[in-house]
Every structure is written in C-alpha cells, then in structure tokens.
Amino acid sequence: MARQMFGFIALLCLYAVTQGLPSRHIQTKHHEPNKDQPQFKEKYFTQILDHFNFNSMGNGTYDQRYLITDQYWKRGYGPIFFYTGNEGDIWEFALNSGFITELAADQKALVIFAEHRYYGKSLPFGQDSFSIPEVGLLTVEQALADFAVMITALKPQLGASECPVIVFGGSYGGMLSVYMRLRYPNIVAGALAASAPILSTAGMGDSRQFFQDVTHDFESYAPECRDAVRGAFQKLQDLSEVEDYSRIQAAFSLCKPPSSQKDIHQLNGLLRNAFTLMAMLDYPYSTHFMGNMPANPVKVGCDIMLSGADLLQALRDTAGIVYNSTGILKCFDLYSLYVECADPTGCGLGFNSLAWDYQACTEIELCFESNNVTDMFPPMPFTEAHREQYCSKRWGVIPRPGWLKTQFWGSALSSASNIIFSNGDLDPWANGGVRKSLSSSLVAINISEGAHHLDLRSSNDADPLSVITARKTEADTISQWVKMERRRSK
Ligand SMILES: *[C@@H]1O[C@H](CO)[C@@H](O)[C@H](O)[C@H]1NC(C)=O
Ligand SMILES: *[C@@H]1O[C@H](CO)[C@@H](O)[C@H](O)[C@H]1NC(C)=O
Ligand SMILES: *[C@@H]1O[C@H](CO)[C@@H](O)[C@H](O)[C@H]1NC(C)=O
Ligand SMILES: *[C@@H]1O[C@H](CO)[C@@H](O)[C@H](O)[C@H]1NC(C)=O
After folding, report:
1. Number of neighbours of residue 48 by Cβ within 10 angstroms
2. Percent of the chain at pLDDT exceeding 90
3. Is residue 425 among the annotated active site residues?
4. Is a pLDDT exceeding 80 seen at residue 456?
C-alpha cells in the first residue's frame, strides 16, 4: 500500500536521502504545468502539534501543506471535496485522483488535498521528525484531528461556512476518510473510501489473503504464468541451497554477488514486491503513480515470464518492469531498490517510507505472509512476533494489535452512515476491505476490472465499463449526501 518510487527515480531519491535532502526535491516531474490539470495552489496551514496533550508541546505548531483550487466552486455554496492525504507527497495524490476534480467541475465544489503529517513537506520537526521521541506524534488520531481542525478553520476563512464537506481517499487515505466520517460526523457529511483495507489492517483478515490475491491476478491471466513464477523462485531456491552465488548474481544482474541467506531473503523480497506493484497498479493504460507502469502490467509481466527465455532471466526482466522502467539500470542493487520494513507489501524509499514503517509498527497491522501454497511466492512468514521484534529494535515500540479495531469500530459499522466502500476486483487490497453493503447508506461497490482505486483516477478512453458505472453511482450518491446535509443544517 505504501508509496514507492522506482528505477532511476528511486536511486535519485536514495541519493537525495543519503545526502540529507528530502526526496521531494527531485519529484519535479509531476509539477509540470498542463492545461488539462487543475490549477492547485500550494498553501500551508499552521497546525497544532499535539491535539491530545496540552502540556507536551504546549501551543506548539507545525506547517501542514495543502493544495486548494476554487476554479470549479460555486462560491459560498458548492460543497467542499476534501482529500484526506495518505502516506506520501500530496501532489502525487492530487495528480492521480482526477475523478475528484472532474466531479468538482460537475458539482461546483471547492477542492482541497491535505497532506498527512510526517509526509511530503509536512514534517513537524523538519529533518528530526524521524527521531525518537519526535516521531511519536505520528498517529492516525493526530492526522484525523489535523484534518478536522483544518476544515473547521478554513471554512470561515474561505467564506464556506455553509458548505457541506465530503471526504475522499484512496488506500490508507480511504481508511482515513472512513474514520473521519465515524469520528467527526459533525464536520464531514460523507466519505468515498476507495480501496480502503479497513478490516485487514485492523487485524481482521487472513494473513495469507494479500499474496494469494496477488497470485490470483497472474493466475487468472494464465495459470502457466503462475507456474513459471513459482518455478523461477524454485530455481533460485535450488541455487541458493548449493550456495551458487555467482550464478545467482549473473542470472539476476545483481551489482554485488549475494553471500548469505540474508541476501537471498532480500532478493526474494525485492522480486515479490515487483509482483505486488504490478497487481496493485494493473491499470489499462500506462501510469506514473508510485513509479512508472506500462498499460496492463500483469499481462506484460506474464508475457515476459512465458517468453520461453531462461526462467531466472525472465523473472529478472519481469522485476525490471518495476525497477528498470527507465531502461537505464545497469544492475540491481539489492538493498537500495527495495527496503524491508514492517509492511511486507513494501514501504517504498526515502523519508515517506520511514513514516509508513513507523505507522506499520504502531497502529496499522500488516502481518501478511507468502507461503508458496496459497500463493506463488517463496515462504516468507511475517507474524505478529516478527513484527514486534522488528519494531522494538527499529523504533523502540511494541505494536498494539487490536487498537485500530477498538478505536475505529472494526466491522461493527452498521450504525455509521454515508460511506461508499469501493474496491477493484484486481486489487490485492480489496478483500481486506468492506465488500458488501451494510445498509442503504453504507454502500459497497465492486469494480470488476479495477485495480487499486482506479475509480479515483481521471476518466480515460481505456476505462472498463465497470469503473464508468462505479463513478456514476459515486457521483449520484455524493450529490445526494450534499443535498441531505443542506436540509439537515437548515
Ligand atoms: C505559546 O503561548 C505562549 C504563552 O502565551 C506564548 O508566549 C508563545 O508565543 C506561544 N507560542 C506559539 C508557538 O504560539
Ligand atoms: C513450492 O511448492 C512446490 C509444490 O507446489 C514445490 O515443488 C516447490 O519446491 C516449492 N518452492 C519453494 C521455493 O518452496
Ligand atoms: C534495464 O533495461 C535495459 C533496456 O531494456 C536493459 O538493456 C538492461 O539490461 C536492464 N537492466 C537490468 C539490470 O536488467
Ligand atoms: C463484491 O465481490 C465480493 C467478492 O467477490 C462479493 O462477496 C460481494 O458480494 C460483492 N459485492 C457487491 C456489492 O456486489
């Protein structure tokens, strides 16, 4: 789920980080003006550092970044569409969630994308944000309070006091949208939670589900594809058992020969992560979100796996779709292209990955395993015990399984209202979310040919009918919520 930057950009990021520069300095590519793109203004909000303790930070504040555009807004009347930013640079989400601005144009809304604390430029303690104890103010509750305080303060400033607020989010951002509606129904009239795995991340799932569903995507393209992937990992396993490290280096174009089981584990993690990303980002057109992906990456990957080449080289080239999208990677550097963390689906690289690792070590539970039985990957267990061991060493914290479920209702959501849970059937996160409508105002939408929050993306000629239909339902439902809220507040 975590944001990732790949290939050349990844190396640059890493370079920037090791040089003590935030990776954001090289993400300029996304900011090129384009007349089709919404005209966001970048602003900062003076935000309370610690919403829940009046002594620890006193009245201390930090600068929280947000993007805003009123180009579609019926001033003082139209609703506010507020994106609850998740684990990354807020521009990345703003520029990959075109549905929200298309809908804003339609419903004459003011649009705000708020950055999550500890990500992008919203670092409460600058370069020291990831020290202990400074990192301790990174919690879901603080992030939600940030959004609530920001909305409350901006409304009168913008002359929007009467305007209903609808929150939007994808993935962890979708979880935050759900939580906003549960926690602050006084502020938020409804939530569109796209691909929000609110159940699995609260420990209410099957630890095998995620990689099983990744596998399912490749297997439903071609069962032979799954077999080829499994066979390639088996070959790698055979070579590592006889410690033929030079063959492994040659086959995978590794910069340095592996020399231990730890290196092999790292290689397996890096390779598995490529499949995770291809499954999550299996969009019908090429994208530049979380790295560069060709159109239909699962198909592209399987076509390489089945090209008849040597299985190990096929596996390398398939991973290259993710890590070598620029085509300029000379060799795979095991420890810089992929960093193992408390999220077995990947934390990405750079500062944002530190923040996500901390969240995965505290409130967000991501104990997913692969086992080569229910999935095609080598056995890589990641249990609550592994997590605890890693997290206490890395961050000096002991995770609290069950807290998210206690705090945000688990699956006992029936007394909530006005939430859409949309999920794409291709998305390995989908089955960690709410898949069945719980009431007439808690609506689940399945997008049969959709990957990770495809519905939040701009309309595209290659869109399957299922996402067009889903967006239509979402648009109608949101417009109803806005009307309801106007009636209620009269
Ligand atoms: C916090 O409050 C104290 C006492 O009123 C004041 O002197 C100080 O400037 C305030 N700090 C901030 C960051 O607002
Ligand atoms: C995966 O399971 C298959 C049997 O389905 C077995 O032949 C193979 O050795 C296993 N591979 C690994 C890497 O454990
Ligand atoms: C990266 O892609 C280029 C172009 O396809 C290829 O020549 C190069 O060998 C690839 N690098 C690796 C490490 O596979
Ligand atoms: C969505 O798909 C899931 C899994 O296939 C199914 O259990 C569920 O009933 C479907 N939900 C809707 C709203 O169609």
Report:
1. 16
2. 90
3. no
4. yes
